[in-house]
Design brief:
- This protein is mostly helical and 385 residues long.
- It has three domains: 1-104, no CATH class; 107-284, Glycosyltransferase (Alpha/alpha barrel), CATH 1.50.10; 308-385, no CATH class.
- It has helices at 2-18, 28-52, 75-86, 90-103, 114-132, 147-159, 190-194, 197-207, 210-224, 256-269, 272-288, 317-324, 327-344, 370-382; strands spanning 58-60, 65-67, 111-113, 173-175, 187-189, 236-238, 244-246, 248-249, 290-291, 294-295, 297-299, 305-307, 309-311, 350-352, 357-358.
- The strands form six sheets. Strands 5-6-7 form a three-stranded antiparallel β-sheet. It has a three-stranded antiparallel β-sheet with strand order 8-11-12, with no helix packed on it.
- A hairpin with a 2-residue loop joins strand 9 and strand 10.
- The two termini are 26 Å apart.
- Residues 1-23 have low confidence and may be disordered.
- Bound molecules: 2-acetamido-2-deoxy-beta-D-glucopyranose (2 copies).
- Residues 207-208 line the site of one 2-acetamido-2-deoxy-beta-D-glucopyranose.
- The site of one 2-acetamido-2-deoxy-beta-D-glucopyranose has 2 residues, from loops.
- Pfam families: Glyco_hydro_47 (PF01532).
- The active site is at residues 116, 256, 349, 370.
């Protein structure tokens, strides 16, 4: 969900910035102040990272030290590229693109998550490449010579060994130098195999190499072919045997972006196979998982409820419904999710729908952007402040 973090925060920012807000609650002046506050928050985090952690992956905010958490390739800088461009910061965007082009290398002995590396690093490089190449973004870099595209292609090639499985569904992790480790787990999350099509597909189009698009589409087909008779997917699957090792079906944890990328792959590439899969998957989700306005988790075969739980990753769903044109249930669900937000000041990771209280052990809020994305899309659809 992390590439989304960058994009969604930008969307929230953009929403505040681009529109004259004249609703009862928020004046134009207040909207400007909110905009400036968002920008200040971004620079607080970005400058703190650059000062104390760069070129390591992430900043530890309490000790103010850097840490390599994903692969050791200045992750936060790559993750921040499109936000810098969106803020109109030509200077920092240009400097970051140049530094990454000169210094980041992927021929490193690091075992990385295929999912996280795709959505954050591959996605970050590709979006920055497109922004830096295009006059219409206002961020075109004259000296730019496709350095980030070449890095993206190199990185994607290093992940290809993960897809060499009987089901086509990739291993969860891959070593960038040696391919898949000998003792790598064969169990992966549905979202891990189904959230790669946008980035690999865009890379395929930019490099004229259909392998990238085919291999990730094949992974989605591998998952969808193993759906239950009632068109639900489980949470974890064995990439060799194709057996579901965790059969709880839901729209949140471990599955969420499988649904998201089906629809977005259709919207981005116009490939109707994705739309066809999405329509069936969505219909089943609305039939078996939706208990207006909440969503529960059920056994993928029997449809018996296993968890009457809101989890904060579910909050992307109303936004997805807007993209699909199903706005009415999106409004009701968003209101329900937002009521949890209002109750605690943010959404806890888990909220029990039976006791209407925080699920034990799930009090935390790891800065998830899903509810903000849904709020943004609903605003775009309804213009309701
Ligand atoms: C790669 O890293 C692993 C563990 O970090 C180490 O055991 C191995 O020797 C390294 N291989 C090479 C070729 O550097
Ligand atoms: C891909 O193909 C198009 C059209 O044939 C061409 O204009 C473009 O330069 C090619 N791109 C690459 C990276 O080869």
């Amino acid at each position: 969900m992390s590439a989304k973090v960058t994009m969604l925060c930008q969307l929230a920012f953009f929403a505040l910035w681009s529109f004259q807000i004249r609703a009862d609650g928020v004046t134009t002046l207040e909207a400007r102040q909110l905009r400036d506050e968002v920008r200040d928050m971004f620079y607080h985090a970005f400058d703190g990272y650059m000062q104390h952690a760069f070129p390591l992956d992430e900043l530890r905010p309490l000790s103010c030290q850097g840490e390599d958490t994903l692969g050791g390739y200045a992750l936060t800088l790559i993750d921040s590229l499109d936000t810098l461009a969106l803020l109109g910061d030509r200077e920092r965007f240009g400097a970051a693109v140049e530094w990454i082009g000169e210094n980041v290398r992927f021929d490193i002995n690091k075992t990385v998550s295929v999912f996280e590396t795709t959505i954050r690093v591959l996605g970050g490089l590709l979006s920055a490449h497109l922004i830096a190449s295009d006059y219409s973004t206002g961020m075109k870099i004259e000296s730019y010579n496709d350095e980030l595209l070449h890095l993206a292609e190199d990185l994607a090639r290093r992940m290809l060994p993960a897809f060499e499985t009987p089901t086509g569904i990739p291993f969860g992790s891959v070593n960038l130098l040696h391919g898949v480790d000998e003792h790598e787990s064969k169990i992966t999350a549905t979202a891990g195999g189904g959230t790669l099509t946008l980035e690999f597909g865009v890379l395929g189009r930019l490099t004229n190499n259909s392998v990238f698009e085919q291999i990730t589409k094949n992974a989605v087909r591998g998952i969808w072919a193993r759906r239950s008779k009632i068109n639900l997917v489980g949470a974890h699957i064995n990439v060799f045997s194709g057996e579901w090792t965790q059969k709880d079906s839901g729209i949140g944890t471990s599955i969420d972006s499988f649904y998201e990328y089906l629809l977005k792959a259709y919207l981005l590439f116009g490939d109707e196979e994705y739309l066809f899969m999405f329509q069936q998957a969505y219909k089943a989700a609305m039939h078996y998982l939706y208990h207006d306005p909440w969503y529960v988790e059920v056994n993928m075969n029997s449809a018996i409820t296993v968890w009457p739980l809101f989890n904060s990753l579910q909050a992307f769903w109303p936004g997805l419904q807007v993209l699909y044109g199903d706005v009415a249930p999106a409004i009701r669900t968003h209101a329900a999710f937002f009521s949890v937000w209002k109750k605690y000041g943010f959404t806890p990771e888990g909220f029990n729908l039976a006791s209407l209280s925080i699920q034990g052990g799930q009090r935390s809020y790891p800065l998830r952007p899903e509810l903000i994305e849904s709020t943004y899309w609903l605003f775009k659809a309804t213009r309701d402040y």
